[in-house]
Amino acid sequence: DTGVSQDPRHKITKRGQNVTFRCDPISEHNRLYWYRQTLGQGPEFLTYFQNEAQLEKSRLLSDRFSAERPKGSFSTLEIQRTEQGDSAMYLCASSPESGLAGWLSYNEQFFGPGTRLTVL
Amino acid sequence: AQSVTQPDIHITVSEGASLELRCNYSYGATPYLFWYVQSPGQGLQLLLKYFSGDTLVQGIKGFEAEFKRSQSSFNLRKPSVHWSDAAEYFCAVGITMEYGNKLVFGAGTILRVKS
Predict the structure, then answer these.
(1) What is the rounded distance in angstroms from the CA atom of residue A74 to the CA atom of residue A118?
(2) Are B102 and A56 a contacting pair at CB < 8 A?
(3) Distance between CA atoms of B63 and A4, rounded to whole angstroms?
(4) What is the distance between the alpha carbons of residues A44 and A38, in angstroms, rounded to a whole number?
(5) Is B4 in contact with A42 (Cβ distance < 8 A)?
C-alpha cells in the first residue's frame, strides 16, 4: 500500500454542476477525514468517519455537500450545484485507531495528494 | 476557540543558513502538535509531532521543534537549510471532538531558499 489516493487530481466544472470526489485510505485505517484548503489558507476540517459512520461534520459542510463511506473503506465527497466559492483543494486523510484507547486516541493523519476543484 | 497562528506568511533564507518558523496555538487542553510540509501539487507530509514527554522533538529531513507550554508555541527549526526545503509549512493542533478528533491548521508559511 502506497498511501492515501484521491481521484480525480483535478476537476474543472461549471457553476451549478454536481461533482464527486473519491478517496481511498490506507488499508486498515478505520478513520477517514475530509479537509478543504483554499488559496493562502491552511486546510479546514469538513467531516470525519470512523469505519462507515460519519461521526463529525463541520458547519462548513453546507447542505450541498454530502460524504459517504459505505463499506468503511473508500469515501466519496459530493458537491451539488457547485458555486465559485467551492473552488479549493479537497484533501482526504486517514489514520489508524488505537484499540486500547478507542476514539479518544490520537494518531497521525496521513494525507492524500488532494483534488483541486475549479468552478467556472 | 481553538486556533493556530503562523505569524510569517513568507520567509526567505539563504541555502545553508538556519531556519526558524514560528507557531502559536490556542487550545485549553493538552495539545497534540504537528508540523506538515506541502510542496506544490503534493499532499501534506508530516515532519514531526508532539504528543507528550520531551519537549524537543526530532523529525524527518533534519527538522526539530520545541514545545513551550508557557508561550503556547511550537516553533520549527533546522540548522542548515537546503534548496529542496523550499515549500509551504503548516503547523497544526489536534483537537478532540465529541466522537473523534481533527486537525486545526495555521495559514502556513511559505519558505523560499535563495542560493
Answers:
(1) 23
(2) yes
(3) 24
(4) 9
(5) yes
Q: Model confidence over B42-77: pLDDT tens digits?
A: 889 999 999 888 899 999 999 999 999 999 999 999
Q: Tell me which residue has cell 508557557.
A: B70
Q: How close, in Å, is residue A119 to chain B by CA atoms?
A: 18
What does the pLDDT average to over A12-22? 98
Residues A91, A35 contacting (CB under 8 angstroms):
yes
pLDDT band per the 50, 70, 90 thresholds, residue A103: very low
Q: How far is B16 from chain A (nearest CA, A)?
A: 27
Q: List chain A residues with CB under 8 Å of B4.
A: 42
Q: Is A111 on the interface with B (CB under 8 A)?
A: yes
**Residue B5: closest C-alpha in chain A:** A42
Work out the mean pLDDT of chain A and round it to a whole number: 90
Which residues, other chains included, contact B100 with Cβ-Cβ below 8 Å and sequence gap of 6+? A31, A48, A50, A55, A56, A103
Of B49, B97, B102, the CB nearest to A108: B49
Q: What pLDDT sits at residue B96?
A: 83
Task: List beta partners, residue A13.
Answer: A119
User: Does the pLDDT of residue A59 top 80, yes or no?
Assistant: yes
Give the model's pLDDT for residue B11. 97
In this structure, what C-alpha cell is assigned to residue B63? 527538522
